[in-house]
Design brief:
By secondary structure, the protein is of the alpha+beta class. 56% of the residues lie in helices and 23% in strands. α1 packs antiparallel against α2. The protein is elongated, with a radius of gyration of 18 Å.
């Protein structure tokens, strides 16, 4: 059995675990990175390599969407502060 590691930011852990659960691959949390990401080890067979590729793509998408949401929230907060300062 092969193993893949995924470094998952805490902001997207729930969504990543849902994706992982759907695919029913053996997995475990093996630690925490220096960036406070959870490290998941996922077992798979050679013929399941495409599933690992899908998980990698999904994780990248989750991280990107999460970053975009945070940027939008920051912009909204800045706009609110500017409006308050104008009063």
């Amino acid at each position: 059995m092969r193993k893949a590691e995924f470094f998952v930011p805490t902001d997207v852990v729930v969504e990543f675990v849902e994706e992982l659960t759907e695919r029913r691959l053996p997995n475990s949390v093996t630690g925490v990175s220096s960036d406070d990401e959870l490290i998941f080890e996922v077992g798979y067979e050679v013929e399941e390599s495409n599933i690992i590729d899908e998980l990698e793509t999904k994780l990248d998408s989750l991280i990107e969407n999460n970053e975009n949401e945070h940027e939008e929230e920051e912009e909204e907060e800045e706009e609110e502060e500017e409006t308050e300062n104008d009063d």
